[in-house]
Amino acid sequence: MGRSLRRFTLATVMLGLAGLLPALALGSTGRTVAPTAAERAGILKAFGDPRAADSCLIVRLAASNGNYGTVRFHAVSRCTRWAFNGVNVLKRRSDDHWKVVFEGSSYGCPLARIPRQVQRDLGICPRA
What we know:
Elements (H helix, E strand, L loop, with lengths): L2 H27 L2 E2 L3 H11 L9 E6 L5 E6 L13 E6 L5 E7 L11 H7 L6
Antiparallel strand pairs: 1-2, 2-3, 3-4, 4-5
């Protein structure tokens, strides 16, 4: 196997693991629910990625408060173009539009202005 192919394979595996680890953490500590089609569309619009990325993004709502949601990267090879390793929280505004209230990959817990149970549900601060 050539050197560049090995590097590409290693990079793909690392990206896959980067996307899988938050999902595993979310499954063990978080409690989320699936959004409706309208909620998903509104969250993805506020998140800001192009529509081409929609199938590569996982949208979940906090089980304790459906006014908060998150978007995660779907770790499959066809989606590596859209990979990211941070976390984010979006909140539904009173006009039924969504707004990003937190984005980050290095942060301290608990987060200000986000209910602690929501942080636990979304898996961003499991011990908040």
